[in-house]
Specification:
The chain is mainly α. The chain has 16 helices and no strands. Helix content is 80%, strand content 0%.
Length: 420
């Protein structure tokens, strides 16, 4: 039996451990908050910032697509960079390095005077942002008890999504350059908070072994790992099809539906309603996965809601501007399975590849906007704006359903294992 002195000595350690867990969850949530702030901000200030650089009309639309590609391309590069670093040097290496690069790039973004510099800084900001969500979720997944892991990752995603709402408020009330300065300042404040975060115990224990760590190619050299990895990514692509195509280009798509003049949708309003839906959807999908004790069942429910929302977007959205915005909220709610998606990514892989998989998977999903945008553009001459967007969406949803059928159930899985 433990002595009274022993119990007293253990209690501060337990409290310290609980404080460490709470701080890890807080830091991960605020990191994702900054991540979403930046991604949403570009959609809001896209037209104003390009007008400030002398671009309007079709030229602004074309350059806007190019800038999205540069930013998402940076996230693809950063996802691999930070993921590998997180498995080789530790989860904290991601949390510190990524926010420094993002903050400096965003502050510099407020001073741009040319499209070339704008693109370069969006690329660097994308690299920096790429580590935020994956690094935070990896750390939180490893420090939380396995049965309550989903609640913590849901909290991270739900708080993070609110960064989109703050971006709408800042983008609507401040000049676009100031909005970028705010993003960089938030990143630097978050950097100071991260000083007190401790490394994951699972990662620390793994360092005593000789197992290979952070080998990105190892995700493809084994059929089981490759299947799990590709399936996870495809499950998440509908989220960024909705955000990157249907919501980001809602003004152009709304106009193609005949919603011109005052009835033309506003990008900032569409994004605001979408992210209100995302915030509630992330909470609901994560809670559902815990209540039914299944990640896959929750994903099936929300993928079905997303498919319904996409169908209504092209048919009922034209009824009125309020109806259009209501469908943006429904689409946001349906695609609010991001929390469960990233949790599943963390739970599918061993400790020596977990940061690599969890950091690269969401960034490959975001980076999927690049080929989706190319497909959207390529199909427009034959199908028009609406037909092209609908065709891309149908393919994305079918692939996600097939992929979800191939994913292993991971609720309550013990994460203290290695990939060999």
């Amino acid at each position: 039996m433990r002595s009274a002195a022993g119990r007293e000595a253990a209690q501060p350690a337990v409290r310290a451990s609980e404080r460490g867990i709470r701080l890890a969850v807080l830091v991960a949530a605020l990191g994702y908050f900054v991540d979403i702030y930046d991604l949403v901000l570009f959609g809001i200030v896209r037209e104003a910032s390009l007008a400030g650089l002398g671009l309007v009309g079709q030229a602004a639309t074309d350059v806007g697509l190019d800038l999205i590609r540069w930013q998402m391309g940076g996230m693809l590069v950063g996802g691999v960079l930070w993921g590998v670093l997180g498995d080789r040097r530790g989860r904290l290496a991601i949390l510190f390095g990524s926010i420094v690069l993002y903050s400096l790039a965003n502050i510099a973004n407020g001073f741009v005077e040319s499209v070339g510099v704008y693109a370069a800084l969006r690329f660097l900001a994308g690299i920096g942002l790429a580590g935020e969500l994956g690094g935070g979720i990896t750390l939180v997944s490893e420090v939380m008890p396995r049965e309550s892991r989903g609640y913590a990752t849901t909290l991270v995603a739900s708080v993070g999504i609110c960064g989109g709402l703050v971006a709408v408020a800042v983008g609507d009330h401040f000049a676009w350059r100031t909005a970028y300065f705010v993003g960089g300042g938030l990143g630097l404040l978050l950097l100071a908070l991260r000083v007190g975060v401790y490394e994951s115990g699972m990662y620390a224990s793994m360092q005593a072994t000789s197992v290979s760590r952070g080998n990105f190619l190892a995700l493809f050299t084994n059929w089981s790992r490759c299947r799990r990895y590709v399936a996870v990514i495809l499950c998440g692509v509908p989220i960024w099809y909705v955000v990157g195509i249907l919501i980001m280009f809602s003004p152009e798509l709304g106009e193609a539906m005949g919603m011109a003049g005052e009835a033309r949708p506003s990008a900032s309003r569409a994004i605001m309603w979408c992210y209100i839906g995302l915030a509630t959807g992330d909470f609901a999908s994560g809670a559902l996965s815990q209540l039914v004790r299944s990640r896959k069942r929750s994903l099936w429910v929300f993928l079905a809601i997303t498919a319904l929302g996409v169908g209504l977007y092209f048919t009922a959205g034209v009824l009125s501007l309020p109806a259009f915005y209501g469908l943006c909220a429904l689409l946001g709610f349906g695609t609010g399975y991001w929390a469960v998606f990233v949790t599943v990514a963390a739970e599918q892989f061993g400790t020596n590849l977990r940061a690599t998989a969890t950091t690269t998977a969401p960034n490959f999903v975001r980076g999927a906007v690049v080929p989706l945008a190319f497909a959207y553009e390529a199909l427009q001459p034959a199908l028009g704006l609406l037909g092209a967007a609908a065709c891309v969406g149908a393919v994305v949803l079918v692939l996600a359903a097939v992929a979800l059928a191939l994913i292993d159930e991971s609720y309550g899985r013990d994460l203290d294992f290695l990939e060999h």
